Amino acid sequence: MNYWSATIEDEKKMLQLGADLAKCFNGHHGLICFYGDLGAGKSTMIRGFIKACGYQGHVKSPTYTLMEPYEVLGKTFFHLDLYRLEDPQELEFIGIRDLFDDNAITLVEWPEKGAGVLPEPVIKVEIEHMDSGRQVKIEAVAASSIAIINELKQIYNK
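User: That's the sequence. What structure does it adopt?
Assistant: Structure tokens below.
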């Protein structure tokens, strides 16, 4: 089983889940795609991820700017929000291919808007609204990310 899922009750726990995913992702690089409706918690989880990696400033959703870069201890994090993207080819104008080097982690909200241009992710995160919180499923897409899911399971199954 190459995924982990749980119900996340509130914003504080969503931030913590993002932080825990960052800890498990330490030493890895690549694309993490976040799926979910408006207000599902994608930006919140990404904020928890980037803060856990050591970023001290404000982590904002790049809804209007499309992309926000963050530099932390020699590593680059790119946070993309593709909600307002009209055509996947627009990603070529921001130099999308330059965002996937061995020193970068790229976190993308609304990746379906970049279909055909974005590479295959290493991790997929799906967030659904529930009556009491959010149902989150984190899936290893690349074989190299199965260890990330196993580590996340260890954290939450204590």
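Residues 3-156 form a domain with the Rossmann fold fold (CATH 3.40.50.300).
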